[in-house]
Design a protein that fits this description.
Blueprint (H helix, E strand, L loop, with lengths): L27 H6 L4 H14 L5 E5 L4 E8 L2 E4 L9 E2 L1 E4 L5 E3 L1 H5 L8 E3 L12 H7 L5 E4 L5 E4 L5 E2 L1 H20 L5 E5 L9 H5 L2 H4 L2 E6 L1
Parallel strand pairs: 1-11, 11-12
Antiparallel strand pairs: 1-2, 2-3, 2-4, 5-6, 5-7, 8-9, 9-10
Amino acid sequence: MLLLGGIIGRKTLECTHVVFDLTGKREFSTLLKKSSSVAAWRDIHARHKSEGVKGAVIGIDLGTTNSCVAVMEGKQAKVIENAEGSRTTPSVVAFSKDGERLVGMPAKRQAVTNSANTFYATKRLIGRRFTDSEVKKDMKTLSYKIVKASNGDAWVEGSDSKMYSPSQIGAFVLMKMKETAEAYLGTPVKNAVVTVPAYFKRLPETGYKGCRTDCWFECIASYK
């Protein structure tokens, strides 16, 4: 049933093509056919079909503001609703005073009263150096603290002085998407396609690939 398995990728998040278009309500398969790199997609499809990817495969749009997860049911893409009944989940991660990690709407709800420990729009920081001009601009508008990591990258810091890399925050969101899909499918999910924006091609790959260490996925392919 899950035909998405033929196109999805390895744990390294190296994708560059848009997978979902909820606004335009276009089908997943249609978007792929219109992709400028359809030849590359066919190569991925053939390669992973021969490798015999097993189990359910999901597609995740990891967004700066919101994220969503979908599966292919027959020839139709099914965007899965989260626990709140919404097809999109805020890409927000927060840590409460007692150390509890919140992801999605629960994190967004308490943002006003816990702004220093609520991290949003962190995808903008993935792979960027602390000295990057874009990072300097973000520091003036974001409610949480951006600090310089030991390797010179831009990380975030909570009020307890604990630091997190942007890829860690991204991994927490991916894990939430994984949990949403597993609740719907009733089975463990280990394979996924993850979207990234076009500009990621100009950034160090290590930052975005860092998400893979915590999200428990084999990312077969990626699209922008």
